[in-house]
Specification:
Layout (H helix, E strand, L loop, with lengths): L1 H26 L7 H28 L2 H13 L22 H20 L1 H13 L7 H23 L2 H29 L22 H10 L5 H29 L7 H14 L15 H13 L6 H25 L7 H26 L5 H16 L10 H20 L10 H17 L4 H14 L9 E8 L2 E8 L4 E6 L2 E7 L17 H11 L6 E5 L15 E6 L2 H7 L7 H7 L6 E6 L2 H5 L7 E6 L14 H10 E10 L8 H10 L3 E7 L4 H5 L5 E7 L15 E2 H8 L28
Parallel strand pairs: 5-6, 5-8, 6-7, 8-9
Antiparallel strand pairs: 1-2, 2-3, 3-4, 9-11, 10-11, 10-12
Length: 766
């Protein structure tokens, strides 16, 4: 019986994570591959878990076991009518508004009901197991459930994604759901048989008291104690202990994958750490006492908070493990306390309901509220500080009463270091930038003070830290002029080299740079330099007798390419993020667009088209553009849906017969040249590439950066003298010589593993 229940819980968790990863891969490209997409998906599935756990709680406390078995079996059959899963046809994300509501709606329609059916499994089957086996501690099954989640998370990118298309995965998942429904039916039959002729007491409210009409208060208290009903305070504690690691999971994921290491698939690593803490905490024999990790909190969390404030991003090999260790320590302490405080099996579903509610609260705070409240990923250090101040109290191990002198002395030192750092970076200019979010956090902290009877000293320290956190402005990148945040990430306009240049950063990725010198402000910099590959393309086009008149650019940046515009030309910039458009069109920071539009000598017509580049480009007339430039970065990765077979076919339809596609593939971790070469071969096109790394000290001082470009055309004549330029090489010929065959990427299949740049990690990119 234990094996059947363990296997069922394992498969249910595996399928729930699989569908989350599957639908995430479908939706990520439509929204530029932004971390916000993954965070929103996390919130959705956490909400589904909450609803599923609520269903399990109601079912197990309102119906006798045999009726539970019947009702749940029927409920499991309903989603079978919706399989195999697929996205609604003709979906288009909003072009100007925050897409969170749209994204949640798509998730509800496409995977909502099947996911909800699976989400009910973990608490309900553990309750059934306790009833069937008379077990007093079925919580070890929770480790089996989390092991299924962990295996799904690991096997998806390594095995499933690399070997099966998205449509094939949909049919495979449908088969897995059928197997799960069969296993749950077996458990339901066993539950029904074991409960025949037997009435099971569900909870205190349903108990029939063999007493007179009136019962003494002392007897009522005695009866309540005998059932060990969790108190309101205890339930709130469960909520907080689940909230902290859930919030840190999303905060650490966003911060690591945008500000430290924009490595493909790296978002999975923090989630693996999070799941491992659950598995270890709820195992029959815990790995070690989680309270021993409390001594690490002062040094570890102080280091993480200060490194965040100062924007210290190197070395990656040290910082990334530190942030993951911080997540592990907080997660294991919180989940260890939850496991230690688990109630009797008759309150199991209530326990999981509060854990799920805490996860949803953490997800909503990070994925939905924080992008609206903060102009940076400020929620991450704020939750680190709350964890630092609150966890010793939640573990009944108050800072002042701890028996370890080194821990007791390290706390004021750590807090002093954080306060000193906040004092150094105090800037009145930013005093109101995050005021609404700071007020919310302060309100939550006051609520925690009341709920957990915190000391007044701890209350005051927390209030001081949170107030100063929103006024910090100091970075190693330069002087921050403005910071703004959208669903797609955090953007900073930074003044560098004593104000000689303004640069736009998305995380750590440079999206554009402009000189403040009036004599050279129209000079294209970074990977758009005159001497770089794209500069050579425009030089060639300017020498043609039939010069291009219409240019499409996918990815606006700061509008640098507009510096190549000539009189009478029409330029269309496709940009997914309204915040980028707002910054690029503000001449206070960048003037490439305004100068080219208002230049009395060579005025051009330009427009910014908001929305996903591929979806919006599809609305343009066919055979319309002479040149299409693709520079659509999401942090340091190019959205895969812009480099698939269907995408290239769309670009060709929108180009004139002799049109050219120029794609910026400069990237530290992904080598897209084999992918584009395979696409060119499949469509019988010509493809040339150039890696421009030879940058002189003088060029570097003027803002030029290394870059890698690929140009594609229908015929070699369209590329003209570029094909005889020694700096360019035929990527198809090179691909043939090296036998570097890459699978053709389509909207239904792409394999990121085959293009990871493992041998060139230090590639100097944007």
């Amino acid at each position: 019986m234990t094996f059947i229940y363990s296997l069922t819980l394992f498969i249910s968790a595996f399928l729930l994570f699989w569908v989350q990863l599957w639908v995430g891969k479908l939706l990520l490209p439509l929204l530029g591959g932004a971390p916000g997409v993954w965070n929103t998906c996390m919130v959705f599935f956490q909400t589904v878990l909450l609803l599923g756990y609520g269903y399990a709680h109601i079912l197990s406390t309102r119906l006798q076991p045999r009726y539970q078995a019947i009702a749940h079996t029927i409920f499991l059959l309903v989603p079978l009518t919706l399989l195999p899963l697929s996205l609604p046809l003709g979906i288009n994300p909003p072009s100007s508004n925050n897409p969170i509501v749209w994204l949640l709606g798509i998730l509800v329609v496409s995977v909502g009901l099947p996911s909800l059916a699976i989400a009910t499994t973990a608490p309900l089957l553990q309750r059934w197991f306790a009833l069937v086996t008379k077990s007093s501690d079925p919580y070890f099954l929770y480790a089996a459930s989390n092991a299924g989640s962990l295996l799904s998370l690991i096997s998806y990118p390594l095995l499933i994604e690399t070997n099966f298309s998205l449509s094939q995965q949909s049919y495979m998942w449908a088969g897995g759901y059928g197997i799960l429904a069969g296993l749950i039916a077996i458990c339901a039959i066993g539950l029904g048989i074991s409960s025949l002729g037997e009435e099971v007491s569900l909870n205190l409210s349903n108990q029939k008291l063999e007493t007179p009409k009136f019962i003494k208060l002392t007897e009522l208290i005695k009866l309540a104690k005998s059932t060990n009903i969790p108190t309101i305070r205890q339930q709130f504690r469960w909520l907080v202990l689940a909230f902290l690691p859930a919030s840190l999971l999303l905060g650490a994921t966003t911060y690591i994958t945008t500000d430290i290491a924009a490595v493909p698939l790296f978002w999975a690593i923090p989630l693996i750490v999070y799941l491992i803490t659950f598995i270890l905490a709820f195992a029959k024999n815990p790995w070690f006492n989680h309270q021993k990790l409390l001594s690490l909190l002062p040094v570890l969390l102080t280091t993480l908070v200060i490194s965040f404030l100062l924007q210290i991003m190197r070395p990656i090999t040290l910082l990334v493990p530190l942030h993951l260790l911080g997540l592990f320590v907080v997660g294991y302490i919180c989940h260890g306390e939850l496991a230690k405080d688990r109630p009797e099996p008759n309150h199991l579903t209530l326990f999981y309901l509060w854990i799920s509610a805490g996860g949803v609260a953490g997800g909503i705070f990070n994925a939905i509220a924080s992008p609206l409240l903060f102009t940076s990923i400020l929620e991450y250090p704020l939750i680190l500080i709350i964890s630092f101040l609150l966890l010793p109290k939640l573990t009944n191990n108050d800072l002042g009463n701890d028996t370890k002198p080194n821990f007791r002395f390290s706390v004021p030192i750590s807090l002093g270091l954080i306060l000193a750092t906040l004092g150094i970076g105090f800037t009145l200019r930013f005093i109101w930038s995050d005021w609404l979010g700071i007020i919310l956090v302060i309100s939550l902290w006051i609520g925690a003070y009341k709920a957990f009877n915190l000391s007044k000293i701890r209350l005051v320290v927390g209030l001081l830290l949170f107030s100063l956190m929103g006024q910090f402005s100091l970075t190693t990148m330069g002087k921050v002029l403005v910071s703004d945040r959208s669903f797609f990430g955090v953007y900073r306009v930074v003044s560098q080299e004593q104000g000689e240049y303004y640069s736009l950063f998305h995380g750590t990725t440079l999206h554009g740079k402009q000189s403040r010198d009036p004599q050279s402000k129209l000079e294209p910099l970074t990977y758009f330099s005159h001497t770089g590959p794209i500069g050579q393309v425009f030089s060639y086009l300017s020498d043609k007798s039939n010069q291009p008149s219409r240019i499409a650019v996918l990815g606006l940046g700061v509008g640098t390419l507009a510096s190549y515009a000539r009189s009478g030309e029409e330029w269309d910039f496709y940009e997914i993020d309204p915040v980028v458009a707002k910054i690029a069109t503000n001449p206070q920071y960048f003037s490439f667009l305004s100068d080219s539009l208002n230049n009395p000598i060579s005025p051009i017509k330009n427009q910014i088209i908001l929305g996903d580049g591929r979806l919006q480009l599809a609305k343009a007339p066919d055979n319309y553009y002479d040149l299409l430039v693709m520079d659509a970065f999401s942090s340091d990765a190019i959205p895969t849906h812009l480099v698939t077979l269907e995408a290239i076919q769309l670009y060709l339809r929108k180009l004139k017969e002799n049109g050219i596609i120029a794609i910026n593939i400069s990237n530290r971790f992904i080598n897209l040249e084999p992918v584009l070469t395979s696409l060119a071969q499949q469509l019988q096109l010509v493809s040339y590439s150039q890696i421009d790394r030879s940058i002189t000290p003088q060029q570097k001082s003027r803002g030029k950066t290394a870059s890698q470009w690929v140009i594609i055309a229908r015929n070699i004549e369209s590329l003209g003298t570029l094909t005889t330029d020694s700096r360019w090489y035929s990527s198809i010929t090179r691909n043939t010589k090296t036998n570097s065959n890459s699978t053709v990427w389509t909207d239904d299949f792409s394999d990121i593993w085959q293009v990871l740049r493992l041998d060139d990690f230090n590639y100097e990119s944007n």
